[in-house]
Amino acid sequence: MSEQNQAESDVAAGKSDIGASIDWLRSLVTLSTAVFRLGIAEASLAREDLGRLILVYLLIVPVFLLTWIALGVLAAWIVFELSSSATLGIASFAAIQVGTCLLLVNRIKTYRHSFTLPETRAQIMAIIEEVRDETGKSTPAD
Q1: Within its chain, how far is the Cα of 3 from the centroid?
Q2: Is this model's pTM higher than 0.90 or not?
Q3: Out of 7, 55, 83, 130, which could bridge 88 as a Cys pair, Cβ 3.0 to 4.6 Å?
Q4: What is the domain range of residue 93?
């Protein structure tokens, strides 16, 4: 009789575990649905702001350019005032622009390199090498 009672308690425990798993899955589905709905609502709001954001970006670029030129002219004017040489003033303005261009070209090279995904490619190559090593070890030698 004790074996039958043990078997019945095991079955009851199994049903309890299955019920808990089903409840957990239902909670997970409910949570996933809620997060998905929130994401859809937030994406809808973001889509409405996209046009405004593009407009602001289009307006801010010329403002930045004019500000940059004004600061370069101001620096060149200060050099001109201190040295009384128009050549030095113009050269300082040109040096500021060329230096900035060189810096930006350097940044472009750095960012372009990151688009090649060097770490990911290295990881993939390591995985491929590991697979090759494993397949080489598992095949019998002739």
Answers
A1: 60
A2: no
A3: 83
A4: 85-142
